[in-house]
Amino acid sequence: MTASRPVQEFFAIGDVCQMTDLKPHVLRYWESQFRFLNPAKNRSGNRVYQRREIELIMLVKHLLYTEKYTIEGARQRIDQFRRTGQLKAEAREALQQETIESLRTDLQSILDVLDRTKPLAPTD
Fold first, then answer.
1. Which of 16, 64, 79, 108 is the most buried (most CB within 10 A)?
2. Which tens digit of pLDDT belongs to each residue from 1-59?
3. What's the rounded Cα separation, in Å, for the pair 119 and 71?
């Protein structure tokens, strides 16, 4: 019998920054621009993000950085997703796309290192 690991429900801003590859000041700015990004605060006053909020952050990141929307355009697009009931699916899709792209970049970095460490074939 194997014990399952508990699923983490709340994340500190540092964890979210690492997961999303964003700086804390970017997250704080986005909180001021997107009313749905409103993390709770713990007893110490530190932001704590839920998994759902991380998905929304990744959607915002995707719209701004990949799709090249302005902040206002991203807001309108997210409102459209909300009205049509597609917000959750779109947020998950953005998270998956960003994860795949991150993995692709990491794998390419590993391949580059391996290529540099290969011994050169002797020339006769």
1. 16
2. 455 555 678 899 999 999 899 999 999 999 999 999 999 999 999 999 998 899 999 99
3. 49
The domain that contains 20 carries what CATH number?
Answer: 1.10.1660.10
Quick one: angle between helices 24-33 and 51-61, nearest 10? Answer: 90
What's the domain range around 32?
10-117
Three-state SS at 8: coil
48 within 8 A of 40, measured Cβ to Cβ? yes
Split into its structural domains, the chain has a count of 1
* Sheet with 40-41, side-by-side order of all strands: 10-12, 47-50, 40-41
- pTM equals 0.77
